Amino acid sequence: MNNICLELKNIRRTYGTKETQIDVLTDVNLTLKAGEIVALVGPSGSGKSTLLHIAGLLDTPTGGTICVNGQNVSQATDKQRTVMRQKAIGFVYQSHLLLPDFNALENVMLPQLIAGVSRSNAQKRAEELLAQVGLADRMTHRSGQLSGGEQQRVAIARALANKPSVLLADEPTGNLDPKTADTVFASLLQLVRQTGLSALIATHNPELALQMDRQVTVQNGVLIDLTTKGTL
Ligand code: ADP
Ligand code: MG
Question: What's the pLDDT at 117?
């Protein structure tokens, strides 16, 4: 029985050439248990996005090991990584990145259709998810006809469409006004807890961070658990 969804071991990420080298991550270790929701905090430039992109298999680390659902994906081919991303990982970005020519329902159906789900099942799941994020009466709106908060709710529903075991979110409410950010975030947390999936969520907002199970940060290229250090 393996209840660890995501494991990062000795992750290193270096940018630039030898002369201009920046060591953003030098030795990052993180274990995300099933159902655990972890806040990734820290100032701009500390490496949050770099870490999330590596965890989401969108970027390859300079060194170290990544395991998703107990499977070591460090040496996986591009095709295997794509399949793993499609099935096991949901990603929410700071901007919604919805397809403008499609409506909310279609945006949530699309990743399922790509993964081979039938049209009717994809639509059923998309309708359920959109209802869960409070958009039951906005399903046929295109992204341009939705408010910023609504667009981000659709992006959250889309990230969960293929029933991932890990949700990664990079400042998901960072572009929203504080009041909208609070309600969208509450909806995100509720959905994650209901589904029982684990999540790593980068945020600048200490109040949002404190609603999660524990808080971690990248300091000098190393991941520090602020909860056990008692520094938050
Ligand atoms: P955060 O998300 O915490 O703001 P990032 O992970 O975006 O931090 O960036 C961490 C550091 O890595 C920054 O100093 C940034 O300039 C640098 N960086 C990020 N992406 C690249 C890249 N593609 N090439 C060079 N440097 C990068
Ligand atoms: Mg960032």
Answer: 97
